[in-house]
Write a structure and sequence with these properties.
CATH topology of one domain: Nuclear Transport Factor 2, Chain: A
Mean pLDDT: 78
Low-confidence stretches: 60-74
Strand order of the largest sheet: 3-4-5-6
CATH class of one domain: Alpha Beta
């Protein structure tokens, strides 16, 4: 059973320390104070009005009250801590009974697991040994001595003819048409560079050499070493120098010189690589 509290005291007493009035709420019958606002349950019962005098009013029957009358026994206040402890004990008792009943209930038989087959230990795979293939070792050939082609060999006469060809070609190399193609066929190295420099200067300055005669009178030395050779000869030239159409006699006349020519076998032919006047 429950009793309702609207938070408004009816016993004409002051309860200023309590948070009332409040919304009506229902309380269990065993509580003597409202769980919401703390108002005593007895405060909700109106106090009886006192009689006007000590003597009973006429025709008024006063019923004496006995100490054992239940209406005169004030309600005993309920301790909140005690109520909480009692509730906790009840809850624990209920939970303990549930656990005890659960433990007494027999569990269904669980299936017995079948014995598993023993695990097979993998056997290590033997390593694969690859035997290296043995190949016969070929003998390393000895480096052969360079064999010069037959055309590399040059004689003293062939060397003299090469110098004579150079002297006669100067008539078209150091004079119009300043033939660079013939120059490249006969010379190489320093001889070619010196001749091309002289040719370019003559052409740029409108100058040239004119040769009336060129002779090789003597051969003094001749040597061959592989693709190199030297020949020393006596050269006699009758030449005239012209510039801008004018003849310069101070630079003209017969010129006799002993010249040592260095020859080189290159591009499948012998060429004059250098020359030095004595």
């Amino acid at each position: 059973m429950t009793w309702r509290c609207d938070g408004i005291p009816q016993d004409s007493k002051s309860y200023s320390s309590l948070p009332h009035p409040s919304d009506p709420c229902d309380n269990p019958d065993f509580l003597t104070e409202c769980a919401h606002c703390g108002l005593p349950r007895t405060a909700l019962t109106p106090s009886p009005k006192p009689p006007p005098s000590d003597s009973p009013a006429p025709n008024t029957t006063v019923t004496p009250t006995t100490p054992d009358s239940p209406t005169n026994i004030p309600p005993k206040p309920v301790d909140w801590q005690k109520a909480t402890i009692i509730g906790s004990v009840v809850g624990i008792s209920v939970l303990s009974g549930f656990v005890l009943a659960r433990s007494l209930t027999p569990l269904p038989d669980s299936p017995t697991p079948e014995p598993s087959s023993p695990a097979t230990t993998p056997q290590p795979t033997p390593p694969i040994v690859v035997n290296p293939t043995t190949y016969p070792t070929a003998p390393i050939p000895e480096p052969a001595s360079p064999v010069m082609p037959p055309s590399v060999t040059i004689t003293s006469q062939e060397a003299k003819e090469l110098v004579a060809k150079w002297l006669s070609s100067k008539q078209v190399i150091m004079a119009p048409p300043y033939d660079r193609k013939i120059l490249a066929e006969i010379t190489t190295g320093k001889q070619y560079r010196d001749a091309i420099t002289a040719m370019n200067w003559l052409e740029a300055n409108n100058a040239y050499w004119k040769y009336s005669s060129q002779n090789i009178s003597n051969v003094y030395q001749f040597n061959v070493d592989g693709d190199r050779a030297t020949i020393q000869v006596k050269v006699i030239e009758n030449l005239v120098y012209y510039k801008n159409g004018k003849r310069y006699n101070d630079r003209s006349g017969i010129k006799t010189t002993i010249v040592t020519y260095s020859l080189q076998y290159i591009d499948s032919s012998w060429k004059i690589a250098d020359s030095e006047n004595q």
